[in-house]
Structure formats: structure tokens, C-alpha cells
Amino acid sequence: MKKSEIEAMNRSFGILRERKDKIIDDERTIQLQKRVKGIREYSIKNMDVLVEKAVKNLEKNGVEVILAEKSKNALDAVYSIVKDESMIAKSKSNTVGEIGLSEFLEDKGVQVVETDLGDRIVQLDPDSKPSHPIGPASHLRMNDIAKIISNEFNIDIKPDPRVILDIIKEDVLLKLTKCNIGITGANSVAADDGSVVTVHNEGNISLVSMLDIHIIIVGIDKLVETIEDAVSVVKLETIFASGKTVPAYMNVISSPSKTADIEQIILNNMYGPGRLVVILLDNGRTQAIKEGGECLLCIGCGSCIVTCPIYNEIGNEFGYKRYFGGRGVIKQFY
Predict the structure, then answer these.
(1) How far apart, in whole angstroms, are the C-alpha atoms of residue 139 and residue 170?
(2) 214, 210, 213: which is closest to 184 by C-alpha?
(3) Which of 189, 282, 195, 286 is CA-nearest to residue 233?
(4) pLDDT higher than threshold 70 for residue 334
(5) What is the pLDDT of residues 48-78, one digit of tens each?
(6) What angle do CA 274, 258, 256 make, to 5 degrees?
(7) Alpha carbon of 114 to those of 4, 146, 152: distances in Å?
(8) Distance CA 279, CA 213 (A)
(9) What three-state secondary structure class fits 62?
(10) Which of 9, 84, 136, 157 is most solvent-facing, going by the fewest CB within 10 Å?
(11) Residue among 330, 301, 287 at smallest CA distance from 29
(12) Residue 326 banded pLDDT, cuts 50, 70, 90
């Protein structure tokens, strides 16, 4: 990374640290940490059982489930669904980044529209790649972002955050009208309930998940027993990722869109998707469990990156795809 990018990233990280440090020592947060650690330890020890339960209960709820052992299996599964589309929408997802889906689809002639503001900014800059799982554009200064957007839309944009947001928002919303398929990740999956939990602040996951077909790609390490467990995990992730006690949105997705308002006859595809596909990705996670599984205790908050001295010196060169920092180095071996 350039020196200016490192400086911008460190400034953003400093703001995040200050916000987070105000709440992580709270007694409620400490108790939540203990609870989540227990949840994750149980999940790692009982992964086979949870996968079996998740498949059974998701399918019971009308969800199509695909088990993907490797990245290629997941990529092939997605392509079989989107191959006739010219454009699809996507929300921020480290798991989707892990398998290189956007690059894969672009090579196949399917345009991928990032709907997260930070990811969209990075996507429009051919010289950039994400610098943090929650704040992918943390390494870019306001002036840099204005230049990126000015070049993309061939207009002179002021380095003003509201102006930048409005222009990107308008463009993304226009492109969403041309998309039939949305792809998201997930923050947690409740096996006993057959439900997927996603969290976000921008509202873009809600938009993406309401297209005709919704594809969710999620690692099996995100499996927990119940909705209550899932909420605990994503709440702790929010605290450490953003310094906030709750996200703006927490969506629980359990089936395709449906209604039974006409004589209790169940009809799919009311306002949301008529088809919901969940791809459960292994991609080395089972092997990691066999070797101890400690790295899978990670909830993906990105807090380690913010405080990592190596990362703060050399930036996103220290990592693997969208797995950043030390976790990224570990991921290379699975």
C-alpha cells in the first residue's frame, strides 16, 4: 500500500478504536464474550451435527441447500444459477470474497454490482483492494474517493461525503432495477431453526435479498444451534467491528417470500424472492477443526487488524483475499 493509504487507514482505525474502547469493558459486553465463546466452542465440536440439522431444517423451510466442499463447488453452483444474467447484485461478504466469486463471474461475462458503499468505491478503483472486512475503503482519503468517482462518472465531484454517497447510491439503485439475482453472505446460521441471520447498517442487504432469487454463501463455521445463539454472536461481532452495541439492521431469513392470506393457501414470491438458495461452504474448515479448530473461534469482526502492528505498517498486503491480517495468513494453509 502507498504511504498515504497507510496513513488514511490508520486514521480510520484510530477512530474505530476510540469508539470501540468505550464499550468493550462494559460488564454486559464481558458476559456476552463469555457466552459467545461457549457457543463457538460447542459449534466447532459439533459441526457435523449442526450441518446435518441446518440442511434438514432449511430444506423444511423451503430453502434450497447446496453443500460446497471447495471453492470451485460453490463457484460452479452459483454460476449454474446466474449464467443467463448479464448483471447481479451483491452485498459485502468475506466468504464471497474468499472464493473469488466477483472475479469469477466477471470473467464469465456476468457483471457484479457491489451495493455496500465502501466495496463499491473500491470496486470502481482499479488500483485498490479492500483494507478491512467492515470498512473496505478505510485506506482512501476523501480526495482520493472524489477522484475515483469523478473518473467513473466523468464529472467533477467535490470531496464531500454526502455528495459522494448520493452519487453512488443513485447509480446502485438504478443498477438494482436491472438485477434479478442478489448474492449475500451471512453472519450466523441457526441450525435448529433453519434460519440465517444477517446484519448491516446501510440497508443494502435488505434490497439485495428482495430480488427474485437470493443466494446466500456462508461458511459452515457460522453455524450455531439457535436463533438466540445467532443473535448473541452477531451482537458481539457488531460491538467489536463497529463500536456499536447493535447494528442498524438485523435480518432473520428463514424461507422464500410467502403469504397465506388467501384461505391459508401458501403462495411464494409475494414481495421478496421466490427462490432462496443457501450454499454452505467448507473450503478447509473441516480440516481446520481436525487440527484443533481454534482459528474458527474467530467471529470475523476485524478487531485484530485494527490493533495489529504489522498490518498497520504494511496494510492489506498482509492477508489472503478478503481474509485479512493473521487470520488471512492462517487461511492460506486450508
Answers:
(1) 24
(2) 214
(3) 189
(4) no
(5) 999 999 999 999 999 999 999 999 999 999 9
(6) 45
(7) 25, 18, 14
(8) 13
(9) coil
(10) 84
(11) 301
(12) low
Reported pTM: 0.91
Q: Give tens-digit pLDDT for 192-244.
A: 999 999 999 999 999 999 999 999 999 999 999 999 999 999 999 999 888 88
Contact 60, 53 (CB under 8 A): no
- Residue 268, classified by CB atoms within 10 Å of its CB into exposed (0-12), middle (13-18) or buried (19+), is middle
Residue pointed to by grid coordinates 493473521? 326
Q: 289 near 44, Cβ under 8 Å?
A: yes
Per-residue 3-state assignment (H helix, E strand, C coil) for 161-220:
HHHHHHHHHHHHHHHHCCCCEEEECCCEEECCCCEEEEEECCCHHHHHCCCCEEEEEEEH
Classify residue 322 by its DSSP letter. Answer: T
Q: Decide: helix, strand or coil at residue 279.
A: strand
Query: Whole-angstrom Cα distance, residue 112 to residue 110?
Result: 6
Nearest to 88 by CA among 105, 111, 107: 111
How far apart are alpha carbons 159 and 4 in whole angstroms? 16
d(CA 88, CA 113): 6
For the chain, what are the domain ranges? 3-316
Q: Which CATH architecture has domain 3-316?
A: 3-Layer(aba) Sandwich (3.40)
The 10 Å CB-count burial string (b at 16+, else e) for 186-204 is bbbbbbbbbbbbbbbebeb
Closest CA to 125 of 5, 18, 251, 273: 5
